[in-house]
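Morning. Coffee machine broken again, so started the prediction first thing and wrote up yesterday's gels while waiting. Chain of 167 residues, entered below exactly as on the submission form.
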Amino acid sequence: MKLLLISDTHLPARARVLPPQVWAEVEAADVVVHAGDWVEVALLDELEARSKRLIGVYGNNDGPDLRARLPEIARADLDGVRLAVIHETGAKQGREQRCDAWFPDTDVLVFGHSHIPWDTVAPSGLRLLNPGSPTDRRRQPHCTYQTARVEDGVLVDVELHQLPPRG
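Came back before lunch.
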């Protein structure tokens, strides 16, 4: 099972559209995960139409239209991998311990908010992933997203992808 992880798209505030490379990944993925801050409902509609399966949550910049359609926390079993998605996890200091306490029955937690890519493992074995943003790099050197696969009940091949600068 191939996964695409994105967050903090901020459309159309930070970019007008998702980069073509990300749309290619949407088409190839079995599951698209979006960890919030969509900003406009149009991207949710388009991802729902173009994804085989979409798992998403709302973020702090998402208004009532998005909050009416998306949960604050999403959970799914992906062929034996217990996934949770949330927009914000708080400060980086103590994140692993905090998320261990919040998500005790979870194998992988995808989050966003900071626009800073993150890939760590908490003491319990919980894998924490933040794909950064494919449209708003903020103080990061590149816009980013992540891909991964689920194989035999395990998350494998987690990869951070850097997008070329927008022209």
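The first strand starts at residue 2 and ends at 6. Going to sketch it on the whiteboard this afternoon.
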